[in-house]
Amino acid sequence: MRMQLRPIAVGIVSLGLAAALTACGEAGGGGGSSDGDGKGGGEGKESGTIGLLLPENSTTRYESFDRPSIEGKIAELCPDCKVQYNNANEDTALQKQQFDAMLTQGVDVIILDAVDSASTASWVEEAAAQDVPVVAYDRLAEGDVAAYVSYDNFEVGRLQGQALIEALGDDAEGAGVVMINGSPTDPNAAMFKAGAHEVLHGVVDIVYESDVDGWDAALANEDVTGAVESLGGDAIDAVYSANDGMAAGIITALHAANLHDLVVGGQDAELAGLQRIIAGEQTFTIYKALVPQGELTAEVAVRVLRGEDFSDLTPDAIDSPTTEGVPSALLTPVTVTVENINDTVIADEFYTPEAICTRDYADACAAAGIG
Q1: CB 189, CB 211: distance < 8 Å
Q2: Could you tell me which residues come within 8 angstroms of residue 289 by beta carbon, excluding any fewer than 6 positions away?
Q3: CA end-to-end span of the chain, whole Å?
Q4: Residue 99: count of CB within 10 angstroms of its CB
Q5: 194 phi and psi, to 5 degrees?
Q6: Each residue of 214-264: pLDDT tens digit?
């Protein structure tokens, strides 16, 4: 996949991006559908219905961060707009039914975070036939989507690889690493995997690797249990986990095998992952500020609805297997360890110290200076 990147810097205080987003203002002379170049075409609308399709609810992020940030920003920018929401619970067939229902019910724009991006080209084509543009969110849906908003997912993988090597320190050369990658239907998982391999190749020894359907923590647990049984605990020095949800299952498997001091990295900066980092069970995570990402997507969708130029919001370009040069915003992720939790997720008010430092973690938080 070819990418042309001009990343939007999120850095330490990523809410700065959210503050920088401007209101939509009056509609221009265009319309609700976009021709894919960041400019509207057709007849613009001052209000309408925006469909929001999210992929799963097995992790806390979508209901706690993605949905409220998108819906809240749409309400701010377009008070007369309605949002029609569905969550597919990691079921591609269900998401297709939800997508079709939105078309039948006459939504004007669809924000789509696909369960299986490879299946969406025909969906997007069906929507285009009804003059309903699709904005791809978080995962790059195939088909001629109007825009794509996500993080630089290759960079996520590179940061994961770098953090793992740094945590191994002088023992990194030739260290035995188990790689537990994300779902093969999620293009982000493939990018995380590629970025991590780019950094890890030639430094560590990948002794076991698997792709986990549905990002399922129980399956990740089974894979690591099998790896330990076949390789022996002495052959494993670190485990790469593509996200924090699977890291929970991985750490349970390691502890069951009496392996407590291995490097384990994740991604998503989930609350439970941050608590494991403070407790010394997980080594790092990757923080992607979800509120700015959601708010930026909402503004793109409202501009698409109104037929306004959104090219200033999508300065990057990315190719999918079906479409070249999709107007994109690719934000910059940040590595989080126990040393910089205060300066990242807490400084951004992603989580409060009180949310992280519950009774079970109060002593560890105090020792780490969290709060």
Answers
A1: yes
A2: 10, 14, 15, 17, 331, 348, 350
A3: 42
A4: 25
A5: -65, -40
A6: 999 999 999 999 999 999 999 999 999 999 999 999 999 999 999 999 999
H helical segments located in 178-270: 187-200, 217-231, 244-256
Q: Among 115, 118, 73, which Cα is nearest to 97's?
A: 115
**Which amino acid makes up residue 345?**
V
User: What are 186's strand-pairing partners?
Assistant: none
With contact defined as beta carbons under 8 Å apart, do 50 and 108 qualify?
Answer: yes
Angstrom CA distances, 249 to 107, 127, 217, 253, 268, stand at 39, 39, 5, 6, 15
Q: Which of 220, 267, 212, 217 lies closest to 242 in space, CA to CA?
A: 267
Helix (H, G, I), strand (E, B) or coil at 92: helix
Say which residue the tokens 């850095």 belong to.
11
One-letter identity of residue 71: E
Task: Please say whether the dihedral angle defined by the alpha carbons of residues 163, 136, 190 and 222, taken in this order, is positive or negative.
Answer: positive
CB-based contacts of 18, cutoff 8 Å, min separation 6: 291, 292, 295, 296
Q: Are strands 109-112 and 40-41 parallel, antiparallel or unpaired?
A: unpaired
CA quadruple 33, 39, 44, 48: dihedral sign: positive
The secondary structure element, H or E, covering residue 180 is strand 176-181
Global confidence as pTM = 0.80
- Distance, in Å, from the CA atom of 102 to the CA atom of 84, rounded to the nearest integer, reads 8
Q: What letter would DSSP give residue 284?
A: B
User: Can you state the angle between helices 244-256 and 217-231, rounded to 10 degrees?
Assistant: 40
Residue with tokens 């400084």: 347
- Tokens 């090219």, located at residue: 311
Got the DSSP string for 264-317?
EE-SS--HHHHHHHHHTS--BEEE--HHHHHHHHHHHHHHHHHT---GGG--EE
Burial of 19 (0-12, 13-18, 19+ CB in 10 A): exposed
| Helix axes of 290-306 and 67-77: crossing angle, nearest 10 degrees | 40
Q: Give per-residue pLDDT as tens, 282-338.
A: 999 999 999 999 999 999 999 999 999 999 999 999 999 999 999 999 999 999 999
Tell me the chain's radius of gyration from C-alpha atoms.
Answer: 21
